[in-house]
Amino acid sequence: MTTTTLRPPARPAAPAPTSRQAERLWKASPLTWFGLVLGVLLSLFPFYWMIVIASRTNDAANAWPPPFLPGGKLGENIQRVLDNGDANIVKGLMNSFLVSGTITVATVFFGSLAGFAFAKLRFRGKNALLLIILASMMVPIQLGVLPLYILMAKLDWLNTMPSVTVPFLIGGFGIFMMRQYAEQAVPNELIEAARVDGCSTWKVYWHVVVPALRPAAAVLGLLTFMEQWNQFFWPFVVLADPSNPTVQISLRSLNTAYFADNSQIFAGTLIATLPLFVVFVIFGRQIIGGIMEGAVKS
Amino acid sequence: MSLDLHRAAPSDRNRAARHAQPRRASFNRLDLKFSPYLYVLPFFVIFAVFSAYPIAYTVWIALTDRSPLNSTISFVGLDNFVELFTNDPQFWNAVVNTFGMFVLSTVPQLMLALLLANALNRRLRAQTFFRMAIAMPIITSTAVVALIFSMIYAKDFGLVNWLLDGIGLDPIDWRANRYASWFAISTMVDWRWVGYNALIYLAAMQSISKDMYEAAALDGATRRRQFWSITIPQLRPTIIFTLIISTIGGLQLFTEPLLFTSGAGGLSGGSEGQFQTITMYLLDVMNQRFRWGYAGAVALVLFVLIALMSLVNYLLARRISSDK
What we know:
Chain A contains 15 helices and no strands. Chain A has helices spanning 2-6, 15-25, 30-54, 58-61, 74-83, 89-120, 126-136, 145-154, 162-165, 172-185, 188-196, 201-229, 233-238, 247-256, 262-297. Chain B is mostly helical.
């Protein structure tokens, strides 16, 4: 009783403050802006620093105080890396394109096929199989690294690209992501209609499911390519011979040189990052959308 | 004529259809029954050959003294595990290092990501720019991150030591000192992953109803209070998810400490093994000492540790947020 009698006077005025308050609630305070700008600067600085050192002579790179502005030696340093006989970075780049490209195509194809099966087809043992796929995502490669290495030796794949390609042609993540997407993006009625028209399962996949999955397939392809391009642990184990590296292993060779030539190392990191930088500039929105969407669903 | 044709055509088709029907029906049945298995088969072939079989083999090999240097393989039971648990200080040193760096990187990483996400969740101009900028580190490989930060943490001409000098502090030998090396490596991990985790948190924050915040604000709750009483509890599943992902990744830490040493011999993780992680030790045992049976035991224990830590983190995250 008392509350009801106390409140009314405040009520007429309430709506206006509410919306203004809501307005204020989502406004960024100066502190928020400060934090964000600081975050952005810290995120971007190492990229800038990469260019600074990669464009200096090694002497200028190792100076006190450190240099903060780019110099004019970028082309020269890049040329030195490309010519470096220990790093074989040109070969490394080609290998990385080949390996990452193959895995990306395979992952999108097999992932969408299996994702479709798990989302829309009925078959016995489906849930158990899905559980195995989920569990496989939790297992680190280190667990089986030794037998896998022995297997590669037996197949005569050591120091060749199949060793870093074939085991990763399709992983649990790709299937799971495509399944989540197919579940909501492919209407059951459409599949039924295609069946009535006499479509086989393959034709349903090709004519109904693939068009519907295209946006998610693009994101999966981007994420897979980025992940594979940056692989280090397993290539380090099986590509011990520096004459046939992936680009990340080329970087490792630059770093193990007896004399640490920082401007050359940084030019190397620049070369190794450039392809993904281009991808990110063109498809950044999709990549970010993919990361955020994956988060909501999982 | 035309009438005949018309009449003839359907009957032809009917006859053809009658013939085709059983074949077609049986194809349909086979298609419906076996296509799904065919579609999931590629994964299971790859999984069986390159994951399941090696894992099973690891269990077997860990019970032997197999080595490329031995001509015979003998079964040694649990000897490898006994040695690992009772007589291998280097392994336990690696365990301590790995956990130290895991905690040192994960806790600030997820807290910074939460703060950053909370900031990005405000009404901002240039949202896309901010998101792209903080996500950008994920395009770099761990090798690139390690190489750039190795120079930032260089002893003689490094950026951080120059900054320290600027505020009147002594330079730090980031590789020689144990905790300094942990700190340096943790910042490498964090630089690459904070933005990624912030995007994940941001996605989760955007799915929280705005009404809750407005109601809380009407009741006089400050922003800080709203963050702790609404945002954090609502984000619980997401926090658990990121914690488990970070645990799996963090306990496998390898590239950053490996490349923190320039020159050969990176696997030893510093002169005294001060930043050698479990994975580095695993490769050390496997490829430098050629004790394959023992390496199998190391790999199994690493896996058990990851599983245990994931479970602990899961329980912890559940407790913490439900207390609020």
